[in-house]
Amino acid sequence: MDHKPSVLTARYEVGRLLGQGTFAKVYFARSITTNQSVAIKVIDKDKVLKVGLADQIKREISVMRIVRHSNVLQLYEVMATKTKIFFIMEYAKGGELFNKVAKGRLKEDAARKYFQQLINAVDFCHSRGVYHRDIKPENLLLDENENLKVSDFGLSALAESRRQDGLLHTTCGTPAYVAPEVINRKGYDGAKADIWSCGVVLYVLLAGYLPFHDSNLMELYRKITKAEFKCPNWFAPEVRRLLSKILDPNPITRVSMAKIKESSWFKKGLNSNKQRKLEQTETQAMAPLSRDGSGPSSNGSSMPSEEAKQEQPMKPSNLNAFDIISLSPGFDLSGLFEHDLLRRETRFTSRQPASVIISRLEDTAKLLKMKVMKREPGLLRMEGVKEGRKGLLTIDAEIFEVAPNFHLVEVKKSNGDTMEYQKVVKDGMRSALDDIVWVWQGGKEPPQQQEEAQYLPPPLQQQQPLQQ
Ligand code: ATP
Ligand code: MG
């Protein structure tokens, strides 16, 4: 990196360049505190500003933080300076999947394994309301265990802008993976467009080359629009059938994720045991982000242990850069979260002492007909009494002291269904706590001159706008 800002070097040792895309460079790095390997994607704000994307990217960052799946490359943290945005991401040691295909097509079983992982990841994100819109080889990475990691989920703003700009489009290679309805710029269904791209990926894995290719771009478009492709003779009948249903130029009749998962070719080798295991990793992967400020958690689950919590129940150091950015008036991402239908956490600041906050939370629990399960200086856990769609709804409210009589309260779902959680927060908790809340995250209008004000996450003492 030409210029490494201290916000980054304080926490990460930045190493070699891993790759480069249209808007970004990706570097290997290591967390100084945990020694964990990460990848850092550096996006030039100038470049994205030119195409008017800054706001959308910020919105998508918040989306990326909610899609946690073992086959989705995880976003750990976001940092920003005046000119750059840094995405601190999971490092995919195995590199791009297509480096493998470039050496020759894959055996059917190997291709199926990657396709299963791809479909599971993409379907999971769809269920969270997140569409990729740019599934292509460069975004399919492998970890050290040869597991697929889909990257750039939620960054569809970048994909979109490239498409809208004919020039960018051609310079960034062929649109070989893009669905016909996307090329034709009709309004399109993100899920169906992603399914098409998954079909192209499957074809490439099995064939070792693209289903649609032509040196003439118009001719290529024509082939895609007509879904004009041939399967090589080594494709088994079952997979031919599946591919013809996925690569259906009509998004309405194109096969759904559910149907793909039911197909005999997809299911082969997936016994119910494995399926169950997959589902388990899904829930594990839903654990919250590290909040200890020491960077990515090493084990996916980052809930601090009970002892640790008791020792340091309300330390300001519990805030990470993301929290600071969200709290700082200059770089306010908070306005974006309101639109996030699937958020599992919400925050508010309060100028009341912790004891008052706790007792008001208890009152709120009563009002919401929830039981208080745990009460500690910095934490209150409440649990629903009725079994919900995914078990008992459990909500943790954790209180962090930012300054004397200035607290940040993080309300987080620790069990149960996200939609149910959100309903409780939206319909009950917000109004019940209104008089002790100083600012809800998402309660403010983002500042008008946003770009002017986007600086480094300021030091904790200075980013305190509410102290005067
Ligand atoms: P674009 O994002 O412009 O569509 P792209 O996907 O190729 O294209 P980036 O997302 O910027 O661009 O990534 C560039 C390259 O860096 C990738 O193709 C990949 O080889 C490498 N890379 C990206 N993220 C990681 C990661 N987490 N671990 C390892 N390598 C990565
Ligand atoms: Mg990418």
From TrEMBL:
<dbReference type="InterPro" id="IPR000719">
    <property type="entry name" value="Prot_kinase_dom"/>
</dbReference>
<feature type="region of interest" description="Disordered">
    <location>
        <begin position="445"/>
        <end position="468"/>
    </location>
</feature>
<feature type="region of interest" description="Disordered">
    <location>
        <begin position="271"/>
        <end position="314"/>
    </location>
</feature>
<keyword id="KW-0808">Transferase</keyword>
<dbReference type="GO" id="GO:0007165">
    <property type="term" value="P:signal transduction"/>
</dbReference>
<dbReference type="GO" id="GO:0004674">
    <property type="term" value="F:protein serine/threonine kinase activity"/>
</dbReference>
<keyword id="KW-0418">Kinase</keyword>
<dbReference type="InterPro" id="IPR017441">
    <property type="entry name" value="Protein_kinase_ATP_BS"/>
</dbReference>
<dbReference type="InterPro" id="IPR004041">
    <property type="entry name" value="NAF_dom"/>
</dbReference>
<dbReference type="InterPro" id="IPR008271">
    <property type="entry name" value="Ser/Thr_kinase_AS"/>
</dbReference>
<dbReference type="InterPro" id="IPR018451">
    <property type="entry name" value="NAF/FISL_domain"/>
</dbReference>
<protein>
    <recommendedName>
        <fullName>non-specific serine/threonine protein kinase</fullName>
        <ecNumber>2.7.11.1</ecNumber>
    </recommendedName>
</protein>
<feature type="domain" description="Protein kinase">
    <location>
        <begin position="12"/>
        <end position="266"/>
    </location>
</feature>
<keyword id="KW-0547">Nucleotide-binding</keyword>
<dbReference type="Pfam" id="PF03822">
    <property type="entry name" value="NAF"/>
</dbReference>
<dbReference type="GO" id="GO:0005524">
    <property type="term" value="F:ATP binding"/>
</dbReference>
<dbReference type="InterPro" id="IPR011009">
    <property type="entry name" value="Kinase-like_dom_sf"/>
</dbReference>
<dbReference type="Pfam" id="PF00069">
    <property type="entry name" value="Pkinase"/>
</dbReference>
<feature type="compositionally biased region" description="Low complexity">
    <location>
        <begin position="293"/>
        <end position="305"/>
    </location>
</feature>
<feature type="binding site">
    <location>
        <position position="41"/>
    </location>
    <ligand>
        <name>ATP</name>
    </ligand>
</feature>
<feature type="domain" description="NAF">
    <location>
        <begin position="314"/>
        <end position="338"/>
    </location>
</feature>
<keyword id="KW-0723">Serine/threonine-protein kinase</keyword>
<keyword id="KW-0067">ATP-binding</keyword>
<comment type="similarity">
    <text>Belongs to the protein kinase superfamily. CAMK Ser/Thr protein kinase family. SNF1 subfamily.</text>
</comment>
<keyword id="KW-0464">Manganese</keyword>
